[in-house]
């Protein structure tokens, strides 16, 4: 019975934790401009993140080593440093976007300027990272994040023409958009689903929670059940935008627009659920990205790290996270639009994907670390297919960004 | 090309594969540092390596920003900037390098102690375990 | 043995960022500004409707209108700054955007006091929104 509870908790946390500000914004933008014609990308991204998280979780559980320790050991100091620099910067960008997202939700509820909420949000993130137990942090934000199911409920409440909606799933480029914007947003959506920080967090989190080979079954269940359900939530966000905003040519540019379809469907009660869900999801993601920034740097340099240690025994780890939060706050206080930061962070995440994916794929096949738990033939086949997709997306991202002027 | 066994007893390790860039753990399993470089017995410079010479012996593990910097970009930092971990402290070389002493006793972890004493340790709650 | 060559990835994103800043205004500036303004005004219309139906909260509606006003200002600014050969269209578009902004500001003031949008202000919002939509698609 206790086992069942643990499994259920793990799955629910994975669903609620899947969506972050990148998924919210990108899916809403895509739904309002392209209908559901890019939903296939979300499906592809979910398969990819399942594969990716599964491999990195297995590596952590079997080898007892976290991602960045292994990246440096296998690829060497130089390649590892290049990897670290890019991953850390993009992680910082994502962290800034998430904290901005938390501030935006508070603005939505209170009407008070988000710049006033930014320092409070960052302080909240810091205090939780400083004091709270790892599992408590994960479970609380994951469960509250389940509130986002209101997006799926809203789709039903809006009483759509299901046949028409189904037809929308067929990939096609709307007249108001071009081929290049279509593929640019495909890459953005892919980057939003397959966020790199997820990998650092998942594998380091595995070590935090002391996973062993015995836990492999449970982590597999969390990933294979939780993430696809999270992907369905993402598609629901896009569907809401498709049903309400697309017909009125309202391109999503702010968080307030993302929730309009939910409000139309279910009034103030639905609004209550959606803001709780968005706040939990973005706050949870802010925690994860903050911890990831600490994990990556500490693991490369061999510093003591982990929430399971007292801050005094992992001093540099905590210092890095504190500095990261301060930088994020300073950037947001310049008045930059958090939605714009979000849109850039998902595309840059897509660009940086090969950096973390390739080492994981290599190590998951290395018998010295994995013993008999190396990748099976199927996983490797899928892994190679995704490698091609990831590299293609990474290479195409910058030219498309230039051609479309970042999606305009 | 495998050198002739050294007259003194010991283990032959491949520095690049098994030592460099490995995590160093202290006797309690706490991470200390990553091996940035190794200091080995003198190999005569500017002279062709004698294939019959004994394999060099590792004297110390090296770490530190100066050492890492030159590892990445080339060059040789002055010996005063080297942080050494004596080879005699090493007990095990597996997926990580394990030591027989605690992190706090080592020169290499001085930045950790500095940050602990001057910054993190001073913030309320820093010395307590998480709730 | 895996390759240990460093991956030259920092150059890519940096270059992209610079080029983006330099060349972000692509496409016809008049049309894209009108589209941006039409989308913003339409979202105000929707938000005000939802408030009238009792479905939306006042702070959320205020936030939506504030966000849309920022978009309107941005559309007006990029239209005013961009060089275009179609001077007459540009002036007409600027007029439409300014009318919409006035209607939006009036609605915003009413949201502060008395906290509801009058039928007159709502009608203004509707009219200016459809003007923008017509102009954007013409």
UniProtKB/TrEMBL annotation, chain A:
InterPro entries in the cross-refs: NRAMP_fam
Endpoints of the signal sequence: none
Pfam families referenced in this protein's UniProt entry, alphabetically: Nramp
Keyword Aminoacyl-tRNA synthetase: no
Transmembrane segments: 33-54, 75-94, 114-130, 142-162, 182-202, 223-246, 266-287, 317-340, 346-366, 378-403
One GO cellular component term: plasma membrane
UniProt keyword Hydrolase, yes or no: no
Main localization (coarse): membrane
Protein's membrane topology: Multi-pass membrane protein
Protein name in UniProt: Divalent metal cation transporter
Taxonomic source organism: Schumannella soli
UniProtKB/TrEMBL annotation, chain B:
Protein name: Uncharacterized protein
Organism annotation: Schumannella soli
Automatic annotation (TrEMBL), chain C:
Keywords, in A-Z order: Signal
Signal peptide start and end residues: 1-27
Protein name as annotated: DUF4398 domain-containing protein
Location of region: Disordered: 110-138
Upper classification of the organism: Bacteria, Bacillati, Actinomycetota, Actinomycetes, Micrococcales
């Amino acid at each position: 019975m206790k086992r069942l509870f643990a499994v259920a908790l793990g799955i629910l946390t994975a669903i609620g934790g899947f969506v972050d500000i990148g998924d919210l914004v990108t899916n809403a933008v895509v739904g309002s401009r392209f209908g559901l014609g890019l939903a296939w990308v979300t499906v592809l991204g979910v398969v990819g993140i399942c594969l990716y998280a599964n491999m990195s979780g297995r590596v952590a559980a079997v080898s007892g080593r976290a991602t960045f320790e292994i990246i440096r050991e296998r690829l060497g100091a130089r390649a590892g440093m290049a990897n670290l620099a890019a991953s850390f910067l993009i992680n910082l960008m994502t962290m800034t976007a998430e904290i901005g997202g938390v501030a935006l939700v508070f603005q939505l509820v209170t009407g008070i300027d988000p710049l006033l909420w930014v320092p409070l949000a960052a302080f909240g993130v810091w205090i939780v990272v400083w004091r709270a137990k790892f599992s408590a942090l994960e479970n609380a934000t994951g469960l509250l994040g389940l509130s986002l199911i209101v997006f799926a409920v809203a789709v039903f409440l809006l009483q759509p023409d299901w046949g028409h909606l189904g037809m929308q799933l067929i990939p096609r480029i709307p007249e108001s958009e071009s081929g290049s914007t279509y593929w640019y947003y495909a890459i953005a959506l892919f980057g939003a689903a397959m966020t790199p920080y997820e990998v650092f967090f998942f594998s380091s989190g595995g070590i935090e929670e002391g996973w062993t080979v015995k836990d492999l079954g449970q982590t597999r269940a969390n990933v294979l059940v939780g993430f696809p359900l999270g992907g369905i939530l993402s598609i629901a966000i896009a569907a809401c935008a498709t049903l309400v905003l697309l017909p009125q040519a309202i391109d999503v540019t702010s968080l307030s627009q993302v929730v309009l379809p939910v409000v139309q469907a279910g009034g103030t009660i639905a609004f209550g659920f959606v803001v709780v869900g968005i706040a939990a999801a973005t706050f949870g993601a802010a925690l994860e990205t903050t911890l990831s920034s600490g994990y990556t740097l500490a693991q490369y340099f061999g510093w003591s790290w982990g929430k399971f240690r007292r801050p005094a025994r992992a001093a540099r780890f905590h210092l890095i996270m504190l500095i990261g939060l301060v930088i994020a706050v300073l950037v947001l206080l310049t008045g930059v639009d958090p939605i714009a930061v979000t849109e850039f962070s998902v595309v840059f995440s897509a660009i940086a994907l090969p950096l973390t994916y390739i080492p994981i794929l290599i190590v998951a096949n290395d018998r010295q670390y994995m013993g008999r738990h190396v990748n099976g033939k199927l996983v490797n086949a899928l892994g190679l297919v995704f490698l091609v997709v990831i590299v293609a997306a990474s290479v195409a991202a910058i030219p498309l960004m230039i051609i479309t002027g970042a999606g305009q | 090309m495998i050198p002739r066994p050294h007259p003194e007893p010991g283990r032959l390790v491949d520095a690049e594969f098994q030592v460099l860039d490995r995590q160093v753990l202290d006797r309690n399993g706490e991470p200390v540092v990553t091996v940035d470089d190794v200091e080995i017995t003198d190999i005569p410079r500017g002279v062709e390596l004698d294939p019959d010479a004994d394999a060099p012996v590792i004297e110390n593990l090296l770490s530190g920003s100066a050492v890492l910097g030159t590892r990445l970009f080339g060059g040789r930092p002055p010996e005063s900037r080297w942080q050494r971990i004596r080879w005699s402290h090493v007990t095990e070389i597996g997926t990580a390098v394990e030591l027989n002493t605690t992190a706090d006793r080592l020169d290499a972890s001085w930045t950790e102690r500095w940050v602990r004493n001057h910054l993190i340790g001073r913030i309320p709650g820093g010395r307590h375990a998480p709730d | 043995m895996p390759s240990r060559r460093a991956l030259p990835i920092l150059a890519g994103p940096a270059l992209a960022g610079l080029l983006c800043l330099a060349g972000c205004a692509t496409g016809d500036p008049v049309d894209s500004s009108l589209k941006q303004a039409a989308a913003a005004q339409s979202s105000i219309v929707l938000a005000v409707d939802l408030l009238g139906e009792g479905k939306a909260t006042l702070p959320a509606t205020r936030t939506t209108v504030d966000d849309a006003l920022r978009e309107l200002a941005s559309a007006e600014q990029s239209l005013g700054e961009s060089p275009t050969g179609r001077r007459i269209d540009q002036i007409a578009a600027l007029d439409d955007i300014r009318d919409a902004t006035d209607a939006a500001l009036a609605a915003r003031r009413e949201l502060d006091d008395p906290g509801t949008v009058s039928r007159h202000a709502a009608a203004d919002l509707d009219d200016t929104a459809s003007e923008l939509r017509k102009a954007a698609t013409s």
